[in-house]
Amino acid sequence: MDNINLVETFSEFKDFKNIDRETMMRIIEDVFRSMLEKKYGTAENIDIIVNIDKGDLEIYRLREIVEDDEIEDENLQIAYSEAIKIEPDFEVGEEVSEEIRMADFGRREILAIRQNLVAKVQEYEKDSVYKKYKDRIGDIITGEVYQVWKKETLVLDDESIELILPKSEQIPSDHYRKGDTIRAVVLKVDMRNNLPQIILSRVAPIFLERLFEQEVPEVFDGLITIKNIVRVPGERAKISVESYDDRIDPVGACVGMKGSRIHGIVRELKNENIDVINYSPNTSLYIQRALSPAKITSITLDEKNKRAEVYMKPDQVSLAIGKGGFNIKLAGKLTGYEIDVYRDTGGELEDDVDLDEFTDEIEQWIIDELKTIGCDTAKSVLTIGLEELVKRTDLEEETIIDVIKILKAEFE
User: Fold this and answer.
1) I want to staple 37 with a disulfide (CB 3.0 to 4.6 A). Which of 43, 343, 365, 398 is the partner?
2) Within 10 A of 226 (CB to CB), how many other CB atoms are there?
């Protein structure tokens, strides 16, 4: 490694490793000081001058001039007869400054210096990446998909730092190819095998919160507060908001004119339905809003057990439950109450019940099979009977028995 190689090496680290000047100088000085300490036993009397821009390095060793027969440590002292060969005017007690050149190092020492330098820079890089992303947990980042595996996707940020988006943190309808641009939130940062591992998420509620902050200035400025967010990623989400400024309609501001603000968020979340509701400290009103678009007749709260019995007209029940039961599940998670829905028949004979209202208890494919033979309601299934259902559908007899049991329980 001569001076030319040093210039190239310094430039390489400085330009490609994104290390600031002071840090690079400190790393180089530490590496050379460590090597000199090993070579001479101590580096206390050695000055190292690093010039990153020029790729220049100067090393000087200071030694005290002593009488020829008084030398105790050749590293710290130099014989008078040797000193006057350097400068004839030297006298005993003065210090001699000698330059140590790269040529004074052996091949093995040069290789060790280079290896230590690379190791130190890599260690600095890992530490730098960890600290950078540790401070960005909860922030949205934009990256480029570099590689897609079965269980995770590798994403590179604008500094080519590797980020991981596990399959479990992707929206079910997410599909990526190399080169795609992706937005996600930094979920957590760990050190595994001495390497920083940055985990991204697109399903965490905070991702939705950050999207609202980006799209709705009033949320970003704190004029609108997001009280809670619950999601079934890719299907449905509910978000409760409030504003202490009476002049601001928090729901209207979040949705925007003709949905202009929320449409961008919905597209980002692969058409996830988002219900924005006004938060209320009045629990009954809050639950009523959370079950929207269903309209309730009355509600009974059990504050101690955090349960709510909600009564509504039969035609509102399916709206309250929602597709796949998502609406009632999310309403419960949003309000913190377990919600039970009851039909309010007003003393009249109980109406029939749509099969779609049983999605919590009967799998959707079974309901679809029953619909293929014209059974859309509970009573239409019960009136046909077990034997006929076995003949007319592809369902197992045991499955039909279970279905009938569930449907009968509804009218008991």
Assistant:
1) 43
2) 21
Q: 91-98 contacts: CB < 8 A, separation 24 or more?
A: 91/65, 92/65, 92/66, 92/67, 93/64, 93/65, 94/64, 94/65, 95/62, 95/63, 95/64, 95/65, 96/62, 96/63, 96/64, 96/65, 97/60, 97/61, 97/62, 98/60, 98/61, 98/63
- H or E segment to which residue 166 belongs: strand 162-166
Q: How far is CA 246 from CA 133, 224, 280, in A?
A: 38, 11, 14
CA nearest 268: which of 201, 330, 184, 167?
184
- Please state at what angle helix 364-371 crosses helix 397-411, rounded to 10 degrees: 90
**CB contact set of 65 (below 8 Å; sequence gap of 6+):** 77, 78, 79, 80, 83, 90, 91, 92, 93, 94, 95, 96
The label of the residue with tokens 């009977």 reads 385
Q: Where would I find the H helices in 135-225?
A: 205-215, 217-220
Which of 379, 376, 378, 372 is closest to 395 using CA atoms? 372
Q: Is the whole model's pTM more than 0.90, yes or no?
A: no
Q: Give yes or no for a contact between 316 and 298, defined as CB atoms under 8 angstroms apart.
A: no
Report which of 271, 252, 228 is spatially closest to residue 263, judged by C-alpha positions: 271
Residue 241's nearest CA partner among 266, 222, 268 is 222
Give the H or E element holding residue 172. Answer: none
Measure the CA–CA gap between 67 and 29, rounded to whole angstroms: 33
Non-local (6+) Cβ contacts of 206 within 8 A are 138, 185, 229
Letter string b/e over residues 126-144, b meaning 16 or more CB atoms within 10 A of that residue's CB: eebbbeebeeeeeebbebe
Amino acid at 26: R
